Amino acid sequence: MTALPLLFTIPLLTITSALVMYRFNGRRQMLKFDLIQFIYGFIVSPILFVCFKSFAFVLVKNELGLSLSINQLFLLDTIVSVILLYIYGFVVIHSLTTSFKLVLLKDPLADLFEYSEYFHLWLSHVVIWVGSALLLSIISIANIFFPFSFGPSKPLFFTSLGIATVVGVMIFISTLLSDPQQRNYLRIMKLLFGIFFFVHAGIYFAFDPAWNMPYILYWSTFTIFTTLVTCSLFAHRSQRATNFFNRFKYKKGWDFRAELLQPKKKSKK
Question: What is the largest CA-CA distance in the chain?
């Protein structure tokens, strides 16, 4: 019974702190969110998420005395996590719309569309791609220290690398399709690809992983970033490649190579 009081105390203190902070709404901003709403969405809610998951695990595993298998525990954790993630999604939506409301209270003539573009055209795209690349790299690096117990299979190994190459091209196309045409987005993404490529290259020279299936996650991830860097460096130099990538862009008349090579003019207000 020792874990339950602690699991109750942390959410109670967290909710109490959130209620105390509520009266400071509308005073400061953090990443275009109202500061208090940012704390609700990105600090308070994740703490409660972990607490509720821990509470469910301790309750079922220790307090109720149920002997569940690993698969049953995984299913229970998945159900609880999905429910909490749906709730968390609406909490973030509420925090964002509340921030909009607070902006209008300060300035009834504020341009909410321009205000919201910060999240859609800049922040969300960069965070999604950086977070995905970071998560993929963590899994890849973990494979260096915890190799699989696969037997040697060159055909399967090279097939996996071929699939990774296709995935890299698809990610590059997705990056182009998600281009918000704001703040040198494509240049930042190319820099991101280069950084993760050099990280994996440095890991290769430091640990010298074998060229076989036990390290397939590392080599597949390395192949993905190699493909992304190759596309970033050479795609705009080939007219055929430019025409190929232009097919995936929904905006009529959009020229991928011209957009990469020509800096945008700043609009005068």
Answer: 69
- The total number of residues shown for the chain amounts to 269
Domain boundaries, the chain: 3-110, 121-261
* DSSP assignments along the chain, one per residue: --HHHHHHHHHHHHHHHHHHHGGGTTS-EETTEEHHHHHIIIIIHHHHHHHHHHHHHHIIIIIS-----HHHHHHHHHHHHHHHHHHHHHHHHHHHHHHHHHHHHH-TT--HHHHHHHIIIIIHHHHHHHHHHHHHHHHHHHHHHS---PPP-HHHHHHHHHHHHHHHHHHHHHHHHT--S-TTHHHHHHHHHHHHHHHHHHHHHHH---SSGGGHHHHHHHHHHHHHHHHHHHGGG-HHHHHHHHTT--STT--HHHHHHSPPPPPP-
User: Residues 79-114: pLDDT tens digits?
Assistant: 989 999 999 999 988 888 888 888 888 888 877 777
pLDDT tens column, 8-54: 677 777 778 777 777 777 778 877 788 888 888 888 888 888 888 88
8 A C-beta contact, residue 32 and residue 123: yes
Q: What is the CA radius of gyration of the chain?
A: 24
Question: Who contacts 106 (Cβ-Cβ below 8 Å, separation ≥6)?
Answer: 26
Q: What is the pTM of this model?
A: 0.68
